[in-house]
Amino acid sequence: MIGLSQITGLFGAAGKIVDAVHTSAEEKLQLKNEFTALQTQVMSGMLEYEKSLVESQSKIVTAEATGKSWLQRNWRPITMMVFLLLVVCDSFGWLVNRLADQAWTLLQLGLGGYVVGRSAEKVTAPIIGAIKDFKRE
User: How far apart are the C-alpha atoms of 6 and 127, rounded to whole Å?
Assistant: First the structure.
């Protein structure tokens, strides 16, 4: 998926093209304003998408955490604790075989997904609010 920095870079490049166009300063300013409005609209849409994605993930985790089955409520924490135990054992050389690269990748995804998901959940709403305030001005 395209990130915010890539969108900013794309619109920055478009702004440079506008600067190179042989036209009046007023027309250049109008084009730049239109690009800025379009960039804000695209970024707002992306943030709305990210917000809905985080909300969906949050609903899944909430449903699991409030589920009737003990295993349904606890499988994520158990999985991460097992990986933590494996990392400690691997670090001290207590495992017969070292952890494979795929295990480290899985651990990074598990921890990263949790940390990034929680961070995005906390940050998305203020950013969307700021963009909506900017659009009203």
Answer: 17
Question: Residue 12 and residue 67: Cα distance in Å, rounded?
Answer: 48
Q: Which amino acid is at 41?
A: Q
pLDDT digits (tens, 9 = 90+) for 107-131: 777 776 655 555 555 666 676 666 6
What pLDDT digit, counting tens, does each position of 71-101 carry?
887 887 788 888 889 888 998 999 999 988 8
DSSP letters for the chain? ---HHHHHHHHHHHHHHHHHS-S-HHHHHHHHHHHHHHHHHHHHHHHHHHHHHHHHHHHHHHHHHT-SSHHHHHHHHHHHHHHHHHHHHHHTT-SSSPPPHHHHHHHHHHHHHHHHHHHHHHHHHHHHHHHHHHHH-
